[in-house]
Amino acid sequence: MPLDKLVLICVCVLAAFGVTLWLAALVLTALQVPAGWLALIPAALAAYIFYRVLAERLGNADEDHYDRMKH
């Protein structure tokens, strides 16, 4: 496995771990504060926007110009 792919996998795993901890802290804080569930609205909106951008990027064949390159 090339080093750049290994580093990319490590960065993705660390980012996922950080996001998981952040979401857990946000939910646990929301449970402790009476109106804390309102803090989850921006987090849910950000997650939805991230999902839509990722789905659009992965589903668009025009942006895969590197797939047509010969190495």
From TrEMBL:
Bilayer-spanning residue ranges: 6-28, 35-54
Keywords of the record: Membrane, Transmembrane, Transmembrane helix
Name of the protein in its database record: Uncharacterized protein
Species whose genome carries this gene: Roseobacter sinensis
